[in-house]
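Changelog note: in this version the structure field was regenerated for every chain. One regenerated record is shown below for reference.
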Amino acid sequence: MNPSLIAEAADLAPGTALDVGSGEGADARWLAERGWQVTAIDISQVAVDRAREISPGPEITWLQADLVVDAVPGRDFGLVTAHYFPIHVENRGVATKLVEAVGPGGTLLVVMHAPEGVRAHGFDPDDYVQPADFAELLGDGWEIITHETRPRGIAAGGGHHVDDIVLRARRRP
């Protein structure tokens, strides 16, 4: 379970949600338990199959998709959430797809590791779309609710603690 999801989405009225990079589905299950109808997508068919085995109910639709080449499965979501979903800068159109998938009155929630944590694991954060890049895609029809760096509170691989950058924005109705 991603702590930023709890902090940022607990106060939202349930509706339809898109969980991008859902893995084995902890975030999707948390949303479904709170009344959301969730579409959960991951590039890994293995992760999707495992998630479906754990939670086979109708409140979550599990899909395998590669958003570099595939369309977002649906539109006008009340919540689009992407936690630690790496988008290479060459594929920044994926970020545009996610922004466009949020419906009027809906929320976009993007959480990524802060640059120093990414560098500590041997990656260059400049190679990846960051929450600030998502913020630049938002026009006048959006309100940024949260855009900050905060402690993750959970150790990353190797016990290394990292900070997260959290962007929560609401599309005006």
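Spot check on this record: The longest strand covers residues 102-113. Residues 45-54 form the longest helix (10 residues).
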